[in-house]
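Researcher: Please translate sequence to structure tokens.
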Amino acid sequence: MRLKIFLLITLTPLLLFAQSESSQIATVVPFLNMTSNPRINSFGEIGTVTSNFYRDGGFLQNPALLSRKGKNYGVGISRRFYGGDFNDMSLFNFEGYSSINEKHTLGYSYSRFSLGEIQYRQTVESIPITSMPIEQFHQFLYSVALTESFSFGAVFRYFTSDFGAYIENMQKLRCVALNVGFEYKKTKSLSSKAKLNYHVGGAISNLGPKVSYDINSEIKEFIPTNLSLAALLNPEFNVANESYLSVELAYQMEKLLVPSPQPLGGVDDSDDYSALQGVFQSFSDAPNGMSEELQELVHKIGTEVRFNSSDKFYVALRLGKLFEHEYKGNRNYITNGLGLGYMGFFIDYSSKFDMGAPQSAFNYVNLRLGFRSSFTKPFRF
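Model: Translation complete:
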């Protein structure tokens, strides 16, 4: 295990997420947008839309996905394992949901991110303090299928972070946030043995107040409020009696609803903005105008090929791609994974391949075990 050392003169996002010349948008608690769910990770980290076969995207990005006009339930646990110098870090998640009736669904999930062993120093000469900080959240979900095609969902999220609680005049963060989302879906018959499902969805995640680790500071920082819009095409083919071959192709676009950093010497009024003002300001405040606003978009592509036999057994292969502008974070990697399910029980695996960007150099794999089924058809997916 390598000991990670942090020199904390002051604990601010400028120090935690250095912007330098890249003009990367800085927020606190970026963990709120992370997941150890390997199905989503291997699918290009797309979770704002999903096919009718899945629901678990509702726990991370779009709560509307939990309700699909049916009575279902499920539970799952997942964990991310980091490699190399960061093998003492881990990300754990538990989630469960159940339909109340044909339209309404409730869910709960818990996520815990351990940053491993960290050494804090107030100054260069000070005696280091060693700790293992934890960031975590509890969230409660509600989703409703308003029609056969349209669903809506909301999440209440309570999160804590003790990243800055180990040095003088710093405190543990405690805060709440709201997620909201919608999904619209339709099915078109192509032939007696083929059909096309298409889905569009949108969500805003982590709507919440500004926060600060510094007890004495009047300046508070933005949490990672995020807008995501996505579309998915899902052709299905009946290849044998109650056996189907399904292909999923999806695209997702994301943008942080946080003010853009201003150049050194420029006027930066973002410290005076409320969280809600920051959301609206984020669409028009980039120093280089609309061209830079477009650079702030994150693009995700995902694909899955799945064979499903009578909703009792399935095998799925997944591949995805995430790319971000070099001046706005420079994340650039390929994701891949595998899913297997039998009689309601399932296992998912995912990993990623970096494309040379140092910001995405954290190597990891994700594993997930779970069970999901229908109340009306036990042990069927």
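Researcher: Any highlights?
Model: The chain has one domain: 4-374.
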